[in-house]
Amino acid sequence: MDSAVDEATGGGGSAPVDTKKKPAAAAKGRATAGKGKAGAKADTKTKESSLLKQKSPAEFFAENKNIAGFDNPGKSLYTTMRELVENALDSAESISELPDIEITIEEITKSKFNTMIGLVDRERVDEALYDDFESDKAREKRLAKEARFQETQAKNAALGKKVKEAPTVRAKGRGEASFFRVTCKDNGRGMPHDDIPNMLGRVLSGTKYGLRQTRGKFGLGAKMALIWSKMSTGLPIDIKSAMKGQNYISFCRLDIDIHKNVPHVHLHEKKANKDHWHGAELQVVIEGNWTTHRSRILHYMRQMAVITPYAQFLFRFLSDAAEKNLTIRFARRTDVMPPVPVQTKHHPSAVDLLLIKRLISETTKQNLLQFLQHEFVNISKPHAERLIGEMGPDFSPKMAVKSLTSQQLVRIHQLFRQAKFDDPSGNCLSPAGEYNLRLGIIKELHPDMVATHASSAQVFEGHPFIVEAGISIGGKDVKHGINIFRFANRIPLLFEQGADVITRTALKRINWSSYKINQQQDKIGVFVSIVSTKIPFKGTGKEYIGDDITEISSAVKLALKQCCLQLKSKIVKKLQARERQDRKRNLNRYIPDVARAFMETLVEIADESPPKRPRYDKEDEELLEKVNSQEVTEMTFRDCLAQHVEQVDYEMALEYAMQSGVSEEPREEIYLNSLDGSYKFVDFQSPLFVFRFIP
């Protein structure tokens, strides 16, 4: 101990230290001490930075809102409206109620928004502080540029050249935020009173989880709209809800604790339900941009009306500026609804190791044989016994399923990937149906002709899928060329169209000219709907289906080709009818000249002196006598020739019909309105019609 002290003091244990003679040593000591304190602080910071931190699901999606479609204010307004509409459709369809949905987007000015939150408007004091401030020098430069442009345009006008419009000068800066109140009301199932806070205020909690066809992409729904509302306006969401037969309406006002992922309830009460209403009404105030995404929102509503013709939508946009107000009603065309999608079990070829472990932890079956037989599709008891025998001597049908080791689970997973299984059926899926797809296209586009086709259920990676396609020619509000309408699990896809399998197939893999369709001049509508228990979306926003899955690509191509073949038959018939009309028109054009020539020839013959030897038959002599007596005139020949043309045209049409094997009279489209009230009925369904028998 003494030697250590002596060494530290730089000499003998009792010798005094002369600090005046060694200033460098003292400074070095102080530097070392300072370095020690800095090092201690650095160590503390390192420890703090290395602490394990966690994020709640709500916090994750708040920081990565672009994943859920909230990239910017305009896209956020569109996504909010879309999520509310899809929730409303699911709610109504779950109780087999024809959806009746009202969507209102109300523009809120900045002053009105400030009044709502109790904030007093203030005038600007320091203009230069703001991002849109324009200095005197910048203003002079802009005005000089505008003056030069006007002078140039005046010279062009004097010389007769084309005059350009003055370019729009965008104000520098981000501009003022725009706020909107989005309201969606439906006639669906409603929500239980006590479950409302957790259903709307807790991210990744809901009733749609499980292996089934669902409209949702992330399971967020209105929760992400609430997160965006909290981020952009700080205002809560208002919910009204009532279930069928419920004598009260639940009212709840809540927001979400982002960091804890729990609901924060402001008000939760019950009110009398005097009108016996059932459904839900959600209202949220968010920042948005109507101008940039107006067309997207209206296109979404129109396409939703195409794929769900059994639903009725009322869309309203309200603003203080009367010229911006908008009301559109998408009427119901049919009351035939697709079946409700049902939850199904996993296919063995589609499971991974983690899913097998979860199924084992949740199963109520005791042994391995029962587990394989009841937790997966297409594994019968004999098949399960064969699989267990193939797994090896460590496995037996009666062994406890929850006692399986990690190595045994890996063996099961490997066998599932290598063994052969029957494909899953598509009974769990709920496609729109050819009948509804055709009705929706006719209702919204009014095309000249339309063809539809629905494929049988097919499989990719153990998941069943069905492709429905429709192609229309002509129609209103349809541009020349190919117009593509994409649907996944019966919801429209509007963004990232170029990389989608539907777009690439329609543009690159279909030879339109071989089906008598002009890809450049005709107004072509291409509609493709894909439903599955797992839609293979690409990209973080899940806005398109990849072109790298051969099964889906082939199914889309085949469905479109079937539609093209139907259209080709119709187009050929139409062209042949047009040719007959042209031929008939040309023949009728020459009838007057031919009749006049006949008449002049007969008159000359009749005026000749009688020949020594007879040159005509008795019938010819009678005809000449009628010409002389004007019983036969030029009009008589015209009528006879016109009747002959009609007869020849009819015989040619009949011959074509017999050769083609079809006999089709002109048809008139008749649409029957649905009956009011409740009736017992039986539906006989066909791809082209539904016959409803009401006894």
In words, what does this structure look like?
Helices cover 41% and strands 17% of the residues. With 695 residues, the chain is of the alpha+beta class. Among the domains are: 57-116 and 176-330, Histidine kinase-like ATPase, C-terminal domain (Heat Shock Protein 90, 2-Layer Sandwich), CATH 3.30.565.10; 348-418, Helicase, Ruva Protein, domain 3 (Orthogonal Bundle); 447-565, Ribosomal Protein S5, domain 2, CATH 3.30.230; 574-608 and 617-660, no CATH class. The strands form four sheets. An eight-stranded mixed beta sheet has the order 5-4-3-6-2-1-7-8. Strands 9, 10, 11, 12, 13 and 14 form a six-stranded mixed beta sheet that branches. It has a two-stranded antiparallel ribbon with strand order 15-16. Strand 10 (458-460) and strand 11 form a beta hairpin. Helix 9 crosses helix 14 (434-445), helix 11 packs across helix 12 (381-391) and helix 15 (501-508) runs parallel beside helix 16. It is extended and about 140 Å long.
